[in-house]
UniProtKB/TrEMBL annotation:
GO terms (BP aspect): acyl-CoA metabolic process; fatty acid metabolic process
Domain Acyl-CoA thioester hydrolase/bile acid-CoA amino acid N-acetyltransferase: 19-141
A Pfam family that the UniProt record links to this protein: BAAT_C
Domain BAAT/Acyl-CoA thioester hydrolase C-terminal residue range list: 204-411
Highest taxon above the source species: Eukaryota
GO-annotated molecular function: fatty acyl-CoA hydrolase activity
Organism: Seriola lalandi dorsalis
Keywords: Fatty acid metabolism, Lipid metabolism
Name of the protein described by the UniProt record: Acyl-CoA thioesterase 22
Active-site annotation: 232, 326, 360
Length: 416
């Protein structure tokens, strides 16, 4: 059959938001013929990410990825979004970098003849970050540096501060995608961005307090309280904000530590030192990567207590999410410890969810899985744990939970 009649389709449209699912279909193939599907994107650093999967056309000459199993390649079985989450970088230890959310991430999908490798048909999926009418406002107010996302439509909307991870700079994808769900989101940088210190010797909680005040003052933000979403190193910042600052109603803590880490935290006269790592617990994997999962000691031990965040002071709601196979640190242990602290103080103001085979970076849905990357605190590449498919499913589940959590606790509920 001539390849001119073969068509690869991305449904319902080639354009969608990054967190949306698409249906990939190939039509016009010879019945039962093998076909290879490939995906490719180039990130903002120029790193190429790719996946491939082997399929067999059905009796009508079609492949529908939503119900046909992959027989080999980057994943096997029926995985509607496998060509997205299974993408791996050509450059090892690279996490997908998306700096500018004003432009979509372009994912090329190609169908090739399974026997000859000849290109049969291709299409590009434009995966955007901002709905039409959304505002993206760079923020330089006093010391505050970040970007404010305001959804289209008639507000006011619940407000959320989005804190990202160690490494400096600003990450906008999660904040922009969350804003599409009807929240005003402030992606707040905390070092190494637009005049903020590159290597801070301490973190000043009063800076984050200014961020909270700024967000609460926006006319599009409805009160009385706001939410915080954090991941990794910023988890302790989110817990500290919830414990010391007023006006916080709901805090999402993803794969964080219940104690302060890396850099001392200051608030007025209070100093929370960084929990010191136990270097002898650092391992090297067979592939030569650093595994720091057990490097941090138990913060509840007497000698480490000063580093614990006093979350018993907080009166907001918490969503603790932890990957059980996180190798950045023992996230499930820290999440359970934080939950136990609240419970011991008579507070049931939390939900705890754990994901058995997920790794460290729980991102927005369909983000390529990141098994290893350069670690700012370690100074070299570390292993992050997890299995791609389980990790991808955890990202999907958590994304729905986060929205539900914020919707139920930020709509005119009482605050801290």
């Amino acid at each position: 059959m001539a390849s001119s009649q073969i068509r690869l389709k991305i449904l319902p449209s080639v354009r969608c938001l990054f967190d949306k699912m698409v249906q990939i279909k190939v039509e016009g193939l010879a019945p039962l013929k093998p076909v290879e599907l490939r995906s490719k994107l180039v990130d903002d650093r120029g790193v190429i990410f790719k996946a491939s999967a082997q399929y067999k056309a059905d009796e009508t000459g079609q492949v529908d990825v939503c119900n046909a199993p992959s027989l080999g390649g980057s994943y096997t079985g029926v995985e509607p979004m496998g060509l997205f989450w299974a993408m791996a970088p050509d450059t090892p230890h690279s996490k997908l970098l998306k700096k500018n959310v004003l432009s979509p991430t372009q994912v090329e999908i190609a169908a090739l003849c399974g026997e000859t490798g000849e290109l049969l048909s291709s299409e590009t999926n434009e995966r955007g970050y901002m709905t039409e009418g959304m505002k993206r406002i760079p923020v330089q107010e006093g010391r505050i540096r970040g970007v404010l996302f305001i959804p289209p439509g008639k507000g006011p909307f619940p407000g959320i501060v989005d804190l990202y991870t160690l490494g400096g700079g600003l990450t906008e994808p999660r904040a922009s995608l969350l804003a599409n769900k009807g929240f005003v989101v402030l992606a707040l940088a905390y070092y190494g961005y637009q005049g903020l210190p590159k290597n801070p010797t301490n973190l000043d909680l009063e800076y984050f307090e200014e961020g909270v005040t700024y967000l609460r003052r926006q006319p599009e933000v409805k009160g009385p309280g706001i939410g915080i979403i954090s991941v990794s190193h910023s988890g302790a910042l989110a817990l500290s904000m919830s414990s010391f600052l007023s006006g916080i109603s709901a805090t999402v803590f993803i794969n964080g530590c219940s104690a302060n880490t890396v850099i001392p935290l200051h608030y007025k006269d209070t100093v929370i030192p960084a929990l010191p790592p136990v270097i002898k617990n650092v391992k090297i994997t067979d592939s030569g990567l650093v595994d720091i999962r057990d490097a941090l000691p138990d913060p509840a031990l007497e000698k480490n207590r000063a580093s614990l965040i006093p979350i018993e002071r907080a009166s907001c709601q918490f969503l603790f999410a932890a990957s059980e196979d996180d190798h950045n640190w023992n996230s499930a242990f820290f999440a359970q410890q934080a939950a136990a602290t609240l419970r011991n103080h008579g507070k049931e103001s939390f939900q705890l969810v754990t994901y058995p085979k997920a790794g460290h970076f729980l991102e927005v849905p369909h983000m390529p899985y990141c098994p290893s990357d350069f670690h700012a605190a370690v100074g070299r590449a570390v292993v992050f744990g997890g299995e791609p498919k389980a990790h991808s499913e955890a990202q999907l589940d958590l994304w729905e939970r986060v929205q539900e959590f914020f919707k139920s606790h930020l709509d005119n509920k009482s605050t801290c």
